[in-house]
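Researcher: Sequence recovery benchmark, item below. Answer with residues only.
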């Protein structure tokens, strides 16, 4: 790539304004940036007494939580991690579970040293049925129809969720409500906000699979390629970013590996479908800023700076383009930063950075903060007599960062799945054994940590701190809409088809209003009313 003279108005230097971010654990699918899928929430009745938040104090973070806006950060794994459990948590009987996975299936139990050791440590054989994430809802529906739910089940998409949970999920309230959760220190270390999606009609019937800020929609940049092109300063507006995109496109390289509508919406301060203004639940879809964002991305597409295969390419292909230098900018979830380094670590001089949210006409845009969970997991009503034991197992799997149990659950067996470099566990070629799906049963509260990458941790924490200064939370957290559970996915799909047609120039930008009218008349207005009713009830 030839050198370019930086645009004279690019004032912020990339090396000081961008940060490398990585988080411990295994990447998972991110939450929808458009306001959720209608799952979770009380759905009526008195609000449950949610579990108290009791942070684990056995380790001290190098970078503590900042004003509730960041994760805690650790430069190294604590030496000689302490155990928080004694004996084996289970009762000797097999434990069945089902959940989704975003990974290739691990070696079978009889060929998997980690799985066998997990069984020994739990005191029961853990029998997990895994399904690729994109196929899980269909598998879940079949299992429910066959009345074959296992002890633990990750809750897939279903209609009438509060009624379903009351019928099929064990009531965990007596074990988890308020300070009762202190008996489960791993689960107690999960912030209260994550439990909002676990309460149904006044009862706690699930445990959260907490992800926190790892789901933040994030725009990554290949800083090494930017520097090679002589670009050393940040653009200060979306227009300058567009100009830069044209400079970076040529030959077999495009500035963008996707149509960056999520980032464009954040740039115009409207990254969600819903908002609450003075107690009124409101749709943002009629806001003209949606058309502004669509028009901006349409202009990028028309300028030829987006890979022409982007509209139909799978996410894996976009990651490959980014690693191969065929694209300079890549939208993904925050946690993908670490996996991108792992996937493309052999690329000479690889330097991946996260872009701050640039305001459309200057200044700072608005970061969208999605729901804090990947999903929720329930204990089957048929296994309610084992609920206390199964919660002990879930607590083991949710052991906080810095404990002996966490080190094992996340990294496996020393000398098999990881080797210690100093006090940091560095994965070996057998690390895939750990992907047995136990993290979809229960999981630890996430922290910012990357083995042997102190600079990465600092930059990750800094980036979280920066982008959450001006942010918008998902207002549907803890709310339930029956119409959303039945229709939202389909309505969103139709709206996204219209978005794609507009961005590709197949329909005029003015057609957005037509698509919104169809969304509202097809069920969107009912969803809004139901969210308002749920919001009012929650406010009490």
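Model:
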């Amino acid at each position: 790539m030839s050198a370019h003279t930086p645009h004279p108005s690019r004032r912020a230097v990339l090396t000081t304004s961008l940060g490398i971010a990585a988080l411990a654990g295994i990447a998972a699918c991110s939450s929808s940036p458009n306001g959720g899928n209608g799952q979770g929430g009380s759905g009526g009745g008195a609000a449950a007494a949610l579990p108290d938040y009791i942070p684990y104090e056995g380790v001290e973070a190098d970078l503590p939580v900042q004003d509730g806006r960041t994760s805690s950060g650790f430069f190294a794994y604590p030496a000689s991690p302490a155990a928080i459990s004694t004996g084996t948590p289970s009762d000797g009987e097999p434990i069945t579970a089902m959940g989704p996975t975003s990974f290739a299936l691990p070696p079978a139990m009889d060929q998997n040293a980690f799985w066998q050791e997990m069984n020994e440590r739990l005191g029961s054989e853990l029998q997990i049925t895994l399904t690729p994430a994109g196929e899980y809802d269909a598998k879940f529906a079949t299992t429910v129809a066959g009345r074959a739910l296992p002890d633990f089940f990750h809750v897939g998409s279903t209609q009438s969720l509060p009624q379903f949970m009351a019928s099929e999920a064990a009531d965990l309230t007596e074990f988890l409500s308020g300070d009762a959760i202190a008996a489960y220190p791993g689960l107690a270390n999960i912030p209260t906000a994550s439990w909002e999606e676990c309460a149904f009609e006044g009862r706690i019937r699930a445990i959260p699979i907490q992800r926190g800020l790892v789901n933040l929609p994030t725009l990554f940049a290949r800083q090494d390629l930017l520097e090679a092109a002589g670009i050393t300063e940040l653009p200060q507006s979306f227009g300058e970013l567009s100009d830069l995109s044209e400079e970076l496109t040529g030959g077999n390289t495009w500035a963008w590996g996707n149509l960056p509508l999520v980032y464009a919406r954040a740039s115009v301060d409207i990254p969600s479908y819903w908002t609450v203004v003075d107690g009124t639940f409101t749709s943002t879809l009629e806001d003209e800023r949606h058309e502004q964002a669509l028009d901006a991305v349409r202009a990028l597409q028309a300028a030829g700076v987006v890979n022409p295969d982007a509209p139909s390419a799978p996410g894996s292909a976009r990651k490959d383009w980014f690693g191969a230098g065929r694209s300079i900018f890549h939208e993904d979830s925050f946690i993908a930063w670490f996996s991108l380094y792992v996937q493309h670590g052999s690329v000479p001089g690889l330097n991946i950075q996260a872009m701050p949210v640039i305001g459309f006409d200057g200044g700072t845009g608005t970061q969208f903060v999605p729901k804090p969970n990947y999903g929720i997991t329930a204990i089957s009503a048929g296994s309610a007599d084992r609920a206390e034991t199964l919660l002990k197992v879930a607590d083991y799997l949710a052991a906080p960062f810095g404990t002996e149990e966490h080190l094992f659950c996340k990294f496996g067996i020393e000398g098999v799945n990881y080797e210690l470099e100093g006090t940091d566990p560095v994965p070996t070629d057998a690390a895939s054994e750990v992907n047995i799906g136990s993290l979809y049963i229960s999981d630890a509260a996430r922290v910012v940590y990357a083995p042997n990458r102190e600079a990465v941790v600092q930059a990750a924490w800094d980036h979280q701190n920066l982008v959450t200064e001006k942010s918008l939370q998902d207002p549907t957290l803890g709310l339930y809409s029956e119409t959303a559970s039945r229709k939202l996915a389909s309505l969103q799909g139709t709206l996204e088809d219209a978005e794609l047609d507009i961005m590709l120039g197949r329909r005029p930008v003015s057609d957005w209003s037509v698509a919104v009218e169809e969304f509202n008349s097809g069920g969107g207005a009912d969803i809004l009313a139901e969210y308002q009713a749920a919001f009012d009830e929650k406010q009490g």
